């Protein structure tokens, strides 16, 4: 079967946001929510690979751009978690045959859309963790430039101005949302982690934590494990 | 749901080094207290250090402050493990 990966879009406020779709004619359709910030870039290749593998199993998927990232026309410094969630709701309305929702890492902070749909999560992470890594990177690059800055200095600044944290423009609203963000409690959720992760999960899969790597990489074993678990979950 | 299964500080440091730096299990298992890190591992840049500290915090349920992080910490594998052990004992 030839993969039919294609671009599509969905209306968001006064414009369209892009999304990648695979297997549009399949009966079962999954909304795939990417990780956030740098982790999105590091995982994109694997997740597109997952979409291709799911299609081979007869499962279609929609992979949206979050406003302010990728091809979006929204300036990145205006993005917020609530804006991203609003965009996912629009995406679900546009592709009204989406029956399942999967979130990866920070994507699990905005996946409480389609409350009655079954959800799947891979290694959810709190917003505070994402912020700390971004702030640490900023502290280190400031240090290299001869500027002494601490995480608490940055936290104070973030309350009233947009900060550049590791290449991401984080406005005060986004900063506050991230500080408080934990994955929402959902009706039906299957939670998956990697075998190397000591935390509890419904099941563990093989693969490497590519979202942590400095350089984007591919991992066919991880893509296979993810798509296998998702297709078994959808069929169960 | 997210309660950590017991993990020794040393095992956590090895696991995080492998995941963040993309090193092989054999390579990381071969690390001894004297193994040099910063400068010896090209993968270990400031971005990787930022991710490594956050992952360690998460895995060991500790908080690492800015002023605890200096060049010495990443000089050798032994220094990093000793630091993790000290934070866990705090």
TrEMBL record, chain A:
InterPro entries: AB_hydrolase_fold. This is Uncharacterized protein.
UniProtKB/TrEMBL annotation, chain B:
Pfam families: PP-binding. It comes from the Bacteria. PROSITE patterns: CARRIER. Gene3D superfamilies: ACP-like. Coiled coil: none annotated. Residues 7-88 form the Carrier domain. SUPFAM superfamilies: ACP-like (SSF47336). This is Phosphopantetheine attachment site.
